[in-house]
Amino acid sequence: MKIKKNTRCVMSILAILPFFAVSVFCTGCDGDNIIYAEPQLVVEGWIDSGGHPIVLLSKTIQPSMDYQDMSVLNDYAVRDAKVTVNDGHKDYVLVGRQDDNYLPDYVYTCDDLTGKPGGRYVLTVENGDYHATAVTTIPTPKEISFFEIEPKADSLYGINAFFEDDKSAGNYYKFFVRIEGKDKFYLSSFLGLINGEVLGDNTEVPVYKGVKIPWDEFESFYHPDEVVDIKFAHIDKVSYDYWSDFDELASFSRNPFFFVDSKIRSNIDGGQGYWAGYGAVEYRIDLAEHIRNGDYIIPCE
């Protein structure tokens, strides 16, 4: 059985709960003595090839010694900003709307603008004294040749992706994963960031489950009854740098013996966060169906 590219309307949110907004932004912490920083604008935005721009805006949260649930991000959402994207030809004004499928639960988007491979997109955000700009590009999408389902211990299964890289300089890739019925949006696949310069002739990459912030009990493999949506994105160097720093910071955040106090590289001028372009292709794998039929090698159309 061949697997077709996913053409359903699947939410392509960036994968993670907005990391900048939930992080502790302080210049120093010593026990109960905390030095507070001025609030900063947090931008989390992306545009897929064939998709519309999605932008989430919030303010950084002041540190607290008390537990705060992730839903507190909604209290810091910016709901009255002017957000525009220029594609080199005209400005598109993004309209804000409530959407409980995102966190924070307010998004700016525009149905009139569709991302195109090779396009260059300039984001501008204005909100009171805050003014932020960023630029991103959308590389040409790269398609997966085939997937392989691999039995693991404890009745779990791994998913491996195979694709060909043209070995040209500046190829970077990112996997995102969404479990239907469990995840509202795409999550950043654990160890799912790839630098094309280190790829061999036969590229096999494990596609692990997505990373959730804050970390819960992480399970990298899949249950046999799960339906897995996979987004494979060709990204530029700026987006690669962001995700590289994010992955490193998330890994250290899991370890209670490490105090995390570092910044993630950002392309936002006037704020924090990222504005990323993705040359994206989406796939859907119904594990129960493929396992039942013995289809462990899944060609892609």
Short characterization:
The chain has helices at 19-22, 237-253, 287-293, and strands at residues 26-30, 33-36, 41-48, 54-59, 82-86, 91-98, 106-109, 120-127, 130-137, 146-151, 157-163, 172-179, 187-195, 203-206, 227-235, 272-286, 297-299. The chain has 301 residues and is mostly beta strands.
Strand order of the largest sheet: 9-8-5-6-7-4-3-16-15-12-13
Low-confidence segments, given as residue ranges, are 6-31, 255-261
Question: First CA to last CA: what distance?
Answer: 10 Å
Helix content: under 10%
What is the mean pLDDT?
Answer: 82
Class by helix and strand content?
A: mainly beta
Molecular structure report:
This protein has helices spanning 19-22, 237-253, 287-293, and strands spanning 26-30, 33-36, 41-48, 54-59, 82-86, 91-98, 106-109, 120-127, 130-137, 146-151, 157-163, 172-179, 187-195, 203-206, 227-235, 272-286, 297-299. It has 301 residues and is mainly beta. The strands form three sheets. Strands 9-8-5-6-7-4-3-16-15-12-13 form an eleven-stranded mixed beta sheet.
